[in-house]
Design a protein that fits this description.
two-stranded antiparallel sheet; 4 strands; two-stranded antiparallel ribbon; mainly alpha
């Protein structure tokens, strides 16, 4: 694999990066990967506390009662040893019937939060981030070829990569897309915490879980209008 990962204590880097033809581009890619993972450590992704208030939202977490027994609708029943090792984030994800959808949403939102903090506080890396974001966007699959719910997840990915206009979303989900955009802006604000990402995840999940993941015709998509 040519991506960096972290377990919350250490950062693991690929031994070789050969994604691009130019060595300088591969070096920039490595720097961006490394600072992404360092950002998750520095800006508290692994320090989530279920009971800690967010800064940008009226908290919904206290209103949820955790299920007595957890069933993962995507991957089946977990092993007993895994259930015993409950972390704060595990406790949070137990709130969701569709854990995989919740994980996807949280991953996108939290990465967007961390990258906003990195680009604000480490201006020297911002140029490389912008260049790598543009390259990544150019390789993304067009939303119109995805089923409706996945198209909205793709919309979130594009927002997280700095795209602000020209994104196509299902016409019938225009309000959902606008709501998502607003919540991601909150999470991208300076001072936003991992608990804000969790609160945004609860709200976005509630909207996306109601969207049928059906394929749509190209004429059923429209470019989401820019904010006034």
């Amino acid at each position: 694999s040519d991506v960096a990962t972290s377990d919350g204590a250490a950062i693991f880097l690929p031994s070789v990066v050969e994604r691009f033809d130019l060595q300088s581009d591969n070096y920039d890619y490595l720097k961006v990967m490394l600072t992404q993972q360092a950002g998750h450590l520095e800006f508290g992704s692994f320090e989530f506390e279920f009971e800690r208030p967010s800064t940008q939202f009226t908290d919904l977490r206290p209103q949820f009662k955790e299920p007595a027994e957890y069933h993962d609708h995507d991957h089946g029943h977990e092993g007993h040893h895994e259930q015993a090792a409950v972390t704060e984030l595990t406790r949070f994800f137990r709130l969701f019937p569709n854990k995989r959808l919740a994980l996807d949403i949280f991953s996108i939102v939290e990465s967007a939060r961390v990258e906003a903090r990195i680009m604000d506080q480490y201006r020297g890396i911002a140029v490389a981030y912008s260049a790598m974001r543009a390259r990544t966007l150019a390789l993304r699959q067009e939303s119109i070829y995805l089923p409706a719910r996945e198209a909205l997840l793709e919309f979130m990915v594009r927002l997280s990569l700095g795209r602000t206009d020209g994104i196509k979303v299902p016409k019938k989900q225009g309000k959902v897309a606008r709501d998502i955009r607003g919540m991601m802006q909150f999470v991208g604000g300076i001072g936003a915490t991992v608990e804000d990402a969790a609160e945004a995840t609860l709200r976005i999940y509630a909207r996306l879980a109601r969207v049928k993941n059906d394929y749509l015709g190209e004429d059923e998509f429209a470019v989401l209008e820019s904010e006034q």
